[in-house]
Design a protein that fits this description.
By secondary structure, the protein is of the alpha+beta class. The protein has helices at 54-75, 81-94, 146-152, 159-176; strands at 7-11, 15-21, 24-26, 30-33, 39-43, 46-52, 104-112, 117-123, 129-130, 135-138, 183-190, 193-201. The protein has a five-stranded antiparallel beta sheet with strand order 10-1-2-11-12, covered by helices on one side. It has a five-stranded antiparallel beta sheet with strand order 5-6-7-8-9. It has a two-stranded antiparallel sheet with strand order 3-4. The two termini are 25 Å apart. The mean pLDDT is 94. It is found in: Cytoplasm; Nucleus.
């Protein structure tokens, strides 16, 4: 779904950073909020950023959060990022040909404490899943960012370098994309948990 929202993610050997714009649109072109939060907490070290139709994002996000919380209650431990990615992809895929399917695209970021590695994956509204990637984008502006990542990405980026690289991608989107996306939330997830970083604003 090549929407006007923009989700970005970068994974290194130690952490994953998720960035999401803060604009909420109505009818695809009208700004209704500049403080929209596209992040959904699925676990202590597992987050999802989601874009799409407002009602679908809200409904799907709540449904995923509650089901993964139920999984934790039943089993006594949280689902791994890779298993969560597979479950989410399957849920969207199985719902695709129903009248209440979800029009959402998402990035899933987390840290697997059993494998001691960060995870980054995406699922689109057709149920197409891409797992274990070093960088991913959802939304039309992502087309401007892949070349930057291809050239500058390294697996051993530190936190400051990774933020600067994401900033370059967001700045390129800001310069070349017709829709105004002035601010982005940043979330980092590592073995110690998740924390928010300073917003990137233009």
């Amino acid at each position: 779904m090549a929407g006007t929202s923009f989700l970005a993610g970068v994974r290194t050997k130690d952490f994953v950073i998720l960035a999401s714009d803060k604009i909420a649109f109505a009818f695809g072109a009208i700004v209704v909020s500049e403080e929209d939060n596209k992040e959904l907490k699925l676990g202590d070290r597992l987050y999802m950023t989601c874009m799409g139709e407002g009602g679908d994002v809200s409904n799907f996000g709540e449904w995923v959060m509650r089901n993964l919380h139920l999984y934790k209650l039943r089993n006594g431990y949280e689902i791994s990022p890779k298993a969560a990615h597979h479950w989410i992809r399957r849920a969207i895929s199985e719902n695709l040909r129903t009248e209440d399917h979800w029009q959402v695209d998402l990035l899933l970021g987390g840290y697997d404490v059993n494998e001691n590695k960060a995870f980054l994956g995406s699922v689109d509204y057709l149920g197409t899943g891409i797992a274990d990637q070093n960088f991913l984008f959802r939304g039309f502006p992502g087309r401007f960012a892949y070349a930057i990542m291809d050239k500058a990405y390294r697996e051993d980026l530190n936190e400051t370098e990774a933020i600067d690289l994401i900033r370059k991608c967001l700045a390129e989107a800001k310069k070349r994309f017709i829709v105004n996306l002035p601010a982005f939330r940043l979330l980092i997830i590592d073995k110690n948990g998740a924390r928010h970083l300073a917003d990137i604003t233009f």
